[in-house]
Specification:
Layout lengths: L1 H21 L4 H27 L9 H19 L1 H4 L7 H25 L1 H26 L7 H23 L5 H27 L4
Helix pairs in contact: 1-2, 1-8, 2-3, 2-8, 3-6, 5-6, 6-7, 7-8
């Protein structure tokens, strides 16, 4: 599974790099690419460790920084590059902002449940991953349900935002060790699929910003 994740990350990075060489991409797309580069290096460390030691690393390891960094970049792409264009801060959309936060509570609830049943030390690595994932999930849901109030920016990015949500869910299910092995394996495979789709969907959306 590690090699599949590495291959998916490599495909995404190559696609993003070629896209940047072929066309001038906005900052939003470049931040996404940086996030997937971070994810790639995390997967690369895990793959190299597995080859050298004959098995994947146990507990917290350097590879986690790649995944954590990826979610921080995804969060930054929303908060720093696009959210101010999508949300002007109008009070009439306050309910939508609150509703968007509800799905983001799920990872935290699962984390708390895991801490109660398995202890903080067991769930500590997931804590570091879930925090940036929660912020990413909030903005992805928000931009999926928010009305398209300016320049068509939100509407054209909805397929991408849906993919981000599915990617977060699949990654989350694949990381919780107390879930059945079949669920974790299926989730890991799906996360690789969504990982490969992220940049193509993002590029398709941002290309329409300039039409």
């Amino acid at each position: 599974m590690t090699m599949i994740q590495l291959a998916a990350a490599l495909i995404s990075v190559l696609y993003g790099g070629i896209a940047c060489l072929r066309h001038r991409q906005p900052l939003f797309f470049k931040i996404l690419l940086y996030g997937l580069i971070s994810y790639f290096f995390g997967a690369l460390f895990t793959a190299c460790y597995s080859v050298v030691h004959g098995g994947g690393p146990v507990g917290f390891h350097v590879g986690y920084f790649g995944h954590i960094g990826a979610y921080f970049f995804l969060f930054s792409s929303y908060y720093g590059a696009i959210d101010h264009l999508a949300d002007g801060g109008e009070s009439k959309y306050r309910v939508l902002r609150i509703v968007s936060a509800i799905p983001a509570i799920v990872p935290i609830a699962l984390l708390v449940w895991g801490i109660v049943n398995y202890g903080l030390s067991t769930m500590l690595t997931l804590l570091m991953l879930i925090l940036p994932m929660t912020f990413t999930l909030y903005f992805a849901v928000k931009h999926l349900v928010f009305p398209d109030v300016e320049m068509g920016i939100i509407r054209v990015m909805r397929p991408y935002n849906g993919c981000v949500i599915l990617f977060c869910i699949a990654e989350l299910a694949g990381q919780f060790h107390y879930l059945p092995e079949t669920v974790r394996t299926a989730s890991a495979i799906l996360s690789c699929l969504f990982l490969v789709l992220l940049l193509p969907l993002a590029e398709k959306g941002v290309r329409k910003w300039f039409i």
